[in-house]
Amino acid sequence: MSYKLFIPGPIAVSEKTLRAMAQPMIGHRSTDFVALYQSIQPGLQGLLYTADPVYLSTSSAWGVMEGSIRNLTQKKVLCCMNGAFSDKWLDVAQRCGLAAGALKSDWGQPVDPEALRKALSTGEYDVVTIIHNETSCGCMSDLPALAAVLREFPGVISIVDTVSSFSAVPIKKDELGIDVIITGSQKALALPPGLSLLSPSKRALERAALCKTRGYYFDLLEFQKNHEAGMTPSTPVIPLIYALKSKLEDIAAEGLEARYARHARLNQTVRTWALAKGFKLFPKEGHGSVSLNCFANTLNVDLAALNKALKSKHGFVIDGGYGKLKGQTFRISNMGDETDATMADLLKALDAVLADLGVK
Ligand SMILES: *Cc1c(COP(=O)(O)O)cnc(C)c1O
């Protein structure tokens, strides 16, 4: 049975994107590939408001999340933790054998700029990891405020994960002075999974050059060397690069401002709908994500029953809570290609299912 995903990743992929993937293969050392690679750089750099290169990694986001801390940490990495993905980044750092410290907030609370300043003031750290939009609990941290603190510590390399916010809100890498931005394909970009992007600053590459254990697959200098030739270190997932090119054309056609406005509007539509039902936003007031909503299940709805009916009767799937929040929260994505009409269809179906479950 076919159904449409409104979970916060992977999300629905358009027919146009799927068709873009179905093209004949080209050699990854051919001039055709170099032309493809180079043709998408301006679009990617435009989305990040950066002059830095944007590497294409054939991996999910975790590949470059792990690779970047391995390449860049000489002393100790500070992991800002406020949800499942950012919590996991500390665990990954420890599994890599890196010295790592935690800056913990409760799930749903944004990363606190003041606490970040205090932690970095110890001088212990030379790398910091931040998740801009904690998808697990729908919490968006204030990136400009955090970046202002980071600029006070020029010896600290910042790595920011924008997996679920990239292209949904403006992320001005150069203006903010962020060293490394990471994103994945299957969330805000509405591509199938399997591709991730990483954009490093010059400072980050200089730091990587000091590391003797960069390995190969995620070696930033290997990426840079190949980037200069319009290529990737190893054979990349060419169909997803076709899809990325097609998506960048869609984004250019819509216009960035219109794309941001659409995400904000659809996000608000869903939020207004849920609050009117009596649900509450899970993350801290003023820090709700713009690309998804995470609601506290204040009406004690049987979320498993809700999703079962939603899928079988209406062909839609939402998320019933991530990890320890399963059953207590639910999440609805408005990332990617959603429109007023597609969100209205989902909310109408949710109204019907909730009515069947006794919620008005
Ligand atoms: C989904 C997600 C990840 C992990 O992505 P994978 O593609 O599974 O590696 C990392 N960070 C955030 C914020 C995410 O939403």
What amount of the residues lies in strands? Answer: 5-15%
Series of H and E elements: EHHEHEHEHEEEHEHEEHHHHEEHEEH
What's the CATH topology name of the largest domain?
Aspartate Aminotransferase, domain 2
In terms of per-residue confidence, which ranges show pLDDT below 50 for 5 or more consecutive residues?
none
Distinct helical segment count = 13
| Cα-to-Cα separation, first versus last residue | 29 Å
Tally the beta strands.
Answer: 14
Instruction: Quickly name the level 1 CATH class of the largest domain.
Output: Alpha Beta
In this entry the ligands are: pyridoxal-5'-phosphate
Portion of residues within helices: 40-55%
Shape: globular
Q: Spatial order of the strands in the main sheet?
A: 2-10-9-8-5-3-4
Helix-strand category = alpha/beta
**Average pLDDT across residues?**
97
Compute the CA-based radius of gyration: 20 Å
Describe the main β-sheet briefly: 7 strands, mixed
What is the CATH-assigned architecture of the largest domain? 3-Layer(aba) Sandwich
Number of spatially distinct domains = 2
CATH superfamily heading of the largest domain:
Type I PLP-dependent aspartate aminotransferase-like (Major domain)
